[in-house]
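User: Hello, can you help with two protein structures?

Assistant: Certainly.
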Amino acid sequence: MPNNRRGLFIILLLLLGLFLGLTAVRQTQLFKKKAALADTATLTFAPLSPTTYSPGNSFPVTVRLNTNTQSISGSDILTSFNADQLSLTGITINPTGDTNLNSTSATFAPVTSTGTFDLLRVINCANNGGSSGCPSGRGVAEFGFVRFNWGANAPTAAYSTNGSTVDVATFTFQVKSTAPAGTNPIKFVFTSLSSTTDSNVTAATTVEDILAAPTSQLNITISSTAPTPTPTLPPGGTFTLTAIEDTYVDSGSPSSNYGSSGVLGVDASPTTKISFLKFDLRNLSNTTITSAKLRLTVSQATNSDSTSTQSVKFISNSSWSESTLTYSNSTSYPLGTVLATNPGGTLGETKLIDITSSVSANRGNYYSVGLDQTDIDGLDIYSSEATCPTAIPSCRPALVISTSSTSFPPGDADHDGDVDLGDLGLWARDYGLSISPANFNSDSTVNGLDYLIWRTNFLPAPSPPTTPTPTTTGPTPTRTPTPTPTPSGPTPTPPPVGSVYRSHTNDSYWNVPMPANAPIDIHSSTYITDSQTSSENLDYLGLTAAPDALQDFGYPIYWATASDPTYNYNYTYIDPVTNNPVTVTIPYRIPLGAKPASGSDGALIVYDRGWNQVIEMWKAVYNSTSNSWSYASFKHYVLDSNGLAFGVTGYTTVLNFGHRGIPPPARAIRVDEVQAGAINHRLECFWWATGTNYANHYWPMSGDEGAKGGIVPEGIVARIKPSVNLSTKGLTPPALVIARALQTYGCTVGDNTGAGNRVQLELNKTAWQNLGLTFSALSSIPWSDYEFIQGGYDPVTGTIRQ
């Protein structure tokens, strides 16, 4: 090669080297953060079988970590996936026996666009940080984020797996109902907080760094076969809806899955077998269901028949999958309320079990039920995977549903023919969901537009006079089942004519008697001693607002009608799904001339059966000039609900709130109940002073007043012992009615008096005088005749609730 060419070649090599060097530096800078995010730890997965799922299926992905030689003081695990196909429904921390893993401080908090951490966030690659970090065709990427704080409870300041692999978290995904078929790569990235701070994890760096960083990837396939949709029939039809998923679990093989089995087992011995069935009711959101029966067929195989009774129970969480459910993970899908029972069955027998009310209440959603039993003679029924015998071509589980031709007005979510507060409750329950009977305009979700439809069609009350002029004794009732009181107290409006009214469902905690063998609290005798020695030296339960006592307290009770003025209460609650505040306006009616109690509590209770609600005010004040009410607190409960407050285990509507979980109907004994001779629900006890020595409070209460100087916790139930013969106590007829309620249902300790243990009466002095009731009417029943039920005991389920 000539020298001039050799020189030119050397210059070109030098320039190329310089360019490559600069490029290497630039590349190092560009991917420095990515390398830090990747770290040197490795992520793997527990075996996942199957790897193909249909729309509606849920499946878990257990992530395993090996830190190799690293010692880590904290770390993050992030996941990304195609949000067009999947939803991330939850994350569970799995320490798997490694005592160094401080799982108590691990949290589920996906990344938000501001770099903070929230419950769930969908990040669009193109709108957050540019599209260069998004794989081709990816569209929307959804990110889950788990932070682990290792070392806080560990023997050393840092955490290491010491070369072994541990299960650290299980991510639960659900295939969306609209998911297109194809492969979905689920990616996981491990990042050590010792080298990457939280401030680096923003929307932009998530897109640019997380997706581009070295990852552990799991590929799952979305099947093109979606579940058979619920048929849409003309009104008034009858059709059969087969189960979209079914399986059973067995305590004898807790890790085994029986999703492909041709039978479903139900048994209690020698092992526990529980069957699960799921149905798709989404296309029935606007259908009136007049009948729904669960059809099950007993297998013809030997010993499949049973003489035992099986319970059909509602399962509120339908995210389980027949392909992954086992006895070990079935605790995430607990069986709830008993819907019906089945008295066993013979070989090949087809059973029709009526569960109409439950199916109707859950139309518009996926719907799950479970079968269990307590006896030892197990039952086997055909599953959806069964090959039906020739003689029984329809052997697989199904719902036989009949519908009505009735049409309903806009805003009527519960299809009872009226637009009322029950429909508002369904709207609040399903806010943010796409499939719901409260999605009145059939757009993408239940939202504010649906609320406007409800509010527009809600039956308004007539406008009241601008400045009402109530009389000194209150309005004159047109019906008088209770005697007209004197001006010493307010004049309540009369309850509706007919049998005595009881609010809430028959299976409500407040309406189910305490069984004679209910468990007794271990501190019962201590609480009885407290009652005997600290309750103003009264060895009995007093009656507040009795005619021979002060009339400052007690509860004025009114019954609203269509002619009464309407007012509004703005109620804000935190949505349990989105964790966002939601505000709804609750209209309520109060009769003209209604008066709160004259004492410092200023209490007032108003039943409104037309609007399916009862309200209570504390420190209520009426302004006649502006025709408005003010109050220190406002309580609201739906009359046909189960009476449990929003947030309490077992609640059914977000519209139940107030007084830490005790609804107004439990707070006062009504005159008409005693006149009718029966109080068929639990009452509230007002204690001289509650305490937190043994518990802050018990279910069904959601809170308490703290330590008030006593020892009895709020939420516990006191009752007259079942062994006490009330007929020997010399009680007057009205006192006997109250005593029977205290023996049958008991009273829940829920408030403080500062002056003796009491139950409260409706404020109506004349009515109680006419009945002959006095403050000391229960004095012949000393505290030694009482006992305390174990705190948190639920007579509906027979369990201790938390």
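That covers the first. Now for the second protein you mentioned:
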Amino acid sequence: MSSLLKRLKNEVLVLDGAMGTELHKKGLEVGECPEKLNLTHPEILTEIHRSYVEAGSDIIQTNTFGASRIKLDEYGLGEEVEVINRKAVELAKAAANSDTIIAASMGPTGKLLEPLGDLSFQKAYEIFAEQAQILEDAGVDVISIETMTDLQEVRAAVIAVKENTSLPIICHLTYEESLKTMTGTDPVTAVTVLEGLGVEVIGANCSMGPEGLLKIIETLGKNTSTYLSVEPNAGLPILDENNNTIFPMKASEMASYLKKFVDAGANIIGGCCGSTPEYIRLVAEQVKKLKPKSKNHQAETKLASRSKTVVIADNLPTRIIGERINPTGRKELSAELKEGKMNIVSQEATAQAKAGADILDVNVGVPKIDQVITIKQAITTVQNLVNLPICIDTTDAEVLEAALQTVVGKPLINSVNGEEESLNSVLPLAKKYGACVLGLTLDEDGIPKTAEGRLQVARKIVERALELGIKRENILIDALTLTASAQQEGVQETIKAIRLIKEELGVATVLGVSNISFGLPDRKKVNTAFLAMAIQAGLNAPILDPTIEEMKATLMASDILVNRDVSSQRYLKAYGQNKEAEEKKDTKQEEKEVELNILTQIQQQVLTGDKDNISDNIKKALDDHSALEIINRALIPGIQEVGDKYDEGIYFLPQLMLGAEAMQNSFAILKPILEKEGSKENQGRIIMATVKGDVHDIGKNIVKIMLQNNGFEVIDLGKDIANETIISTALAKKADIICLSALMTTTMPRMEEITAKLKESNSNIKVMVGGAVVTEDYADSIGAYYSDNAVEAVKTAKKLVSNS
């Protein structure tokens, strides 16, 4: 066991504070690579590390946050990745005491992963694996993954570290005021995924001051027994009268939160931006008086999408696994999958989610197609439309791994069985990717006829999974349904097997229901009767068609009778006195949806981010509508509704980006027509840039896409752009607005310089500013307009152009 994990049993440990804040104090220039100082000014790094050790830090973090190859490439230093990382570890060790724990800091790539961006999961994995291997070889004690906002990037980083090193992991995500990450992940979902991956310490850093992060730690503490870590900022940064970055929270104020953090479950406490050795000294003095809180959170079977966790338990409602995305016996779906189309997959995902499915099974088992490509397309399609966890339905190891890399969250693998080949190929993938796994009670001899025989196979699967390090709560068992028409005596054996598996093995149970009635007339009656029997026996998650009302009603009624629906609340909500009126309303709504005109369909496709199918409707719409009419009556209203939902916290970055991509695909068809007709929908011309010294541009790129999709002509100059270039381009192009982005307080002064220069030249060009550290007060102080997200940027830009 590592020294970190040994000490965490009995101590609350102290992390160090900010690295960037201290580097800037010691002369790091704006726009300079912080990690380069490991080579050019090693004495500065050793001094900073030593100051934290002397202040009482038990753990110090190497100056390697941005030392991955992809980040170093931004400074032309990619080939120096090994020497920079090794030197960083050497410098930290030089400042350490004999009991100081050396944590290697690993930050995000600065790129969005597919489908939000261009970086593939595999490439991200390789980037993190390279850095992690170097750091372990250099002698660090633990890997500290920090300031992550994208759950998929977190998965890639953790899997890379786990598979390529033997080091424990501290993993921090960064959250917004909504208590969700930029891409919409809440703390419960984060801990569900990270627990599944075997992360030893889970936490939050940066984001906000201690008050905001306390809420995150409280939520994490209620949902896990895993060790927790927290690194709050010293408040939110502001600029003083000399344009120097300051963090307003005093060290004493920050230290006042320490007991609250420990009471909430924190085992490691440090500081992020603005927290100096003085802060850490006070933290250490207080923490040494505190003992870690004992944790006894009961382990749960949990699945997750990017933004939703589903818990499977005997005292919770029965969970529905929707079965309809499966080409078996469905010619139209099979034909579409062969053609690479996802229309039916989209329809089935949406319909099942609306009907009440909790989890969606995805199967693309069509002969003579590339199932690796198809499973990735299908899962991406489903994830883009609904926020339900995925059940990956395949026995092919290559297809399974492709699916596991595509799923954002914690999926269920359907399935493994008792055959040696299956156990050896599927279980290691479940362990690697932190998935739950469904075991089928069959082996080389087929399906045992008796319940006892199926229990024996189930026991073998569970024991093998446990030996591999898969936790019991991540194992589910399917006792298998045989057809009542052919094997009537086997029905009761399945029911008995469910009971035995629950009693003997203590795992959650799954069962495909509809096979019971194969070959019989009026199958719904048989299916519903069997479902009720299975739930009584302990079934947790049936695989069924949620759009069949009789099945759903039987499930909900059964939950009342087995005490899974407390006070019949779910049943009353679904079938209360207003149900009849709601059904009539739903029927009318369905009829109305059938009659939707083509423009309304397009608007809906923007709203759902249906970027793959919108092009067909755009082409159809051109038969009866002009390009300009399609834009004004369908596309613009659609993206405006996307923006409204984003503002309301209903949508997050993934939905925003998908809606924008649907718009882009539409404009690709309409733009040539508009130009040919001599009609150009142009709201105004905008120059965009990330200011000099700042190499961050994810936020800027999102704003650009949204502005373009709302009719603005956008000239994007890129990142790290000199003031003179921005101003001269804006004047030459006769821009209406200059949009400036900055992620660091040290680069914010460039914004003021640009507004001052424009004022001197008597230019009427408006300036809009934004970025993680920029505030409305700051924008007002420099005579600029402010926007805190892409949706607001569009609204502000429209106002500025209309008022000019």
